[in-house]
Write a structure and sequence with these properties.
Length: 83
């Protein structure tokens, strides 16, 4: 496993999806942000779900996805539903 899997919420499958989307380091993920990173993941993994978006945001913030605020989750749900 690489650098990405050291982040919260990022296991082997998520890391593989990110790498397939051209994101290889925590710095690249943080620079893109969860929404742009999710767009890229979704382009290579059409079945990516809302939980993956939450996981990416948690990784960007360096927290477990369960620790995201309800306000942030609402924002991400609205983004996901607009796709």
């Amino acid at each position: 496993m690489g650098e990405l899997s050291r982040l919260p919420n990022i296991g082997k499958a998520a890391e593989r999806s990110l790498e397939n989307a051209g994101i290889f380091t925590p710095e690249e993920l943080r620079a893109l942000g969860s929404k742009k990173a999710f767009w890229r993941v979704k382009s290579v993994e059409p079945g990516a779900c809302l939980n993956r978006l939450y996981a990416l945001e948690g990784a960007v913030q360096d927290v477990r996805k369960s620790e995201l605020s309800e306000e942030k989750k609402k924002e991400l749900r609205e983004f996901f539903n607009s796709m």
